[in-house]
Design a protein that fits this description.
The chain is of the alpha/beta class. It folds into 2 domains: about 5-130, 3-Layer(aba) Sandwich (Rossmann fold), CATH 3.40.50.720; about 130-315 and about 340-365, Dihydrodipicolinate Reductase, domain 2 (2-Layer Sandwich). It is about 35% helix and about 25% strand. The protein is built from 9 helices and 17 strands. The chain has helices at about 15-30, 45-55, 65-70, 85-95, 110-120, 135-145, 185-200, 320-335, 345-360; strands spanning about 5-10, 35-40, 60, 75-80, 100, 125-130, 155-160, 205-210, 215-220, 225-230, 235-240, 245-250, 260-270, 270-275, 280-285, 295, 365. Strand 15 and strand 16 form a beta hairpin. Helix 1 packs across helix 8, helix 4 packs parallel to helix 5 (about 110-120) and helix 5 runs antiparallel to helix 9 (about 345-360). The longest helix has 20 residues, at about 345-360. The chain starts with a strand and ends with a strand.
Length: about 375
């Protein structure tokens, strides 16, 4: 193909992040295809028109179905609330179009299964927005593990915490509705579970506990009326990996002081590797015999970094990770790469999350 038409659904934080990535990727990387920002959709047509003009999209739609039917759109990017991922992705797949969907893939493992099988039947490229895995340092971490730098893997300790729901008077939103979302485990924990699988491989069994700390919230800012909450504020799980390692994961959106604390420590018989997304340009590595951890700083020797900066220590950020994700998506669409989380892998992440919820509900180990 000579041109790839992009259709973006949603104009919130993630919609803007996708738009920035689609606009930046051609300036940063040599792509085998020209990107055309063909259409943008939002239920508020005035907002759709405003964002389309500001972000460089040719057309604006009030109905997402119109965007999918638009013959200029080859790739449908979905950045809406979670419960809309399923109908939008299924419609795009039925139309034979590639899909780039934000995480989590769906609000139930059955929806995720159907999306995976529909993508297989359609034979199109799919990707899900687990952009933290596209950090050049995370790719390096996976290579270090694969090369045996840590020896036999023993443990994974992971956490993803933020504090945007820590205030008990923060108002009710769609994130608090189990039919529309899945609590801290889905919103944050899905990133951590995807990272654990990316670095450690499949999980065989889980045992877990979840808790709703703030069980009611105002129906809107300042309202005396409150609405019950039926999703988790925090989740904790024990993992048994297929490679024999053991692990712990926790996710919370009520942990004061943390803004993007996706962190992990991976320990093996020869060393330990540690990372924190709030310091996303460095990892710490300890090898047996050292007198402390070695700090590995991101630099242009890592694939992807040099496209943004020729100098070490100048740092990448969140939007650069999204641009790296889009670059690998475009290469896959052109038949020149397979990196990134597709619908099959995202379904596996949803299976793992579902097992954690079941283990917490029934207070037992659950085999996958």
């Amino acid at each position: 193909m000579d041109e790839l038409g992009i259709g973006l659904i949603g104009t919130g934080f993630m919609g803007r992040a996708h738009a920035l990535a689609f606009r930046s990727v051609s300036a940063v990387f040599e792509l085998p295809v020209r990107l055309q920002l063909a259409a943008l959709a939002d239920a508020d047509i005035q907002r759709a028109q405003h964002c389309a003009a500001a972000w460089g999209f040719t057309q604006a739609h009030a109905e997402w179905q119109q965007l999918i039917a638009n013959p200029q759109v080859d790739l449908v990017a979905i950045t809406t609330p979670n419960h809309l991922h399923f109908p939008m992705a299924m419609a795009a797949l039925a139309a034979g179009k590639a899909v780039y969907c934000e995480k989590p893939l769906a609000v139930s493992v059955e929806q995720a299964r159907q999306m995976h099988h529909a993508a297989q039947a359609a034979g199109v490229v799919t990707r899900v927005g687990y952009n933290y895995q596209h950090n050049p340092l995370i790719v390096l971490a996976r290579e270090l593990i694969g090369n045996g730098e840590l020896g036999q893997l023993v443990s994974f300790q992971g956490e993803f915490s933020e504090d945007f729901m820590a205030d008990p008077d923060a108002p009710w939103s769609w994130r608090c509705d189990p039919a529309h979302a899945g609590g801290a485990l889905a919103d944050l924990g899905s990133h951590l579970l995807a990272m654990a699988r990316f670095l450690m491989g499949p999980v065989q069994a889980v045992c877990a506990d979840t808790q709703t700390v703030h069980q009611q919230r105002p129906i809107h800012n300042g309202s005396p009326q409150r609405r019950g909450i039926a999703v988790d504020d925090q989740a904790h799980a024990l993992l048994r990996f297929a490679n024999g390692a053991r692990g712990t994961v926790s996710s919370s959106w009520i942990k004061h002081g943390y803004k993007n604390h996706l962190s992990f420590e991976i320990s093996g018989t020869l060393g330990t590797l540690a990372f924190d997304q709030e310091r996303l340009n460095e990892v710490r590595l300890y090898r047996v015999g050292q007198k402390g951890f070695q700090r590995l700083l991101a630099g242009p020797e890592l694939p992807g970094y040099a496209a943004f900066s020729p100098a070490p220590g100048h740092q990448l950020g969140y939007n650069e990770l999204k641009t790296l994700e889009v670059q690998e998506l475009v290469m896959a669409l052109c038949g020149q790469g397979h990196a990134g989380t597709d619908f099959q892998e995202a379904w596996e992440v949803e299976r793992l999350a579902a097992a954690i919820r079941l283990a917490a509900q029934e207070q037992r180990w659950v085999e996958l």
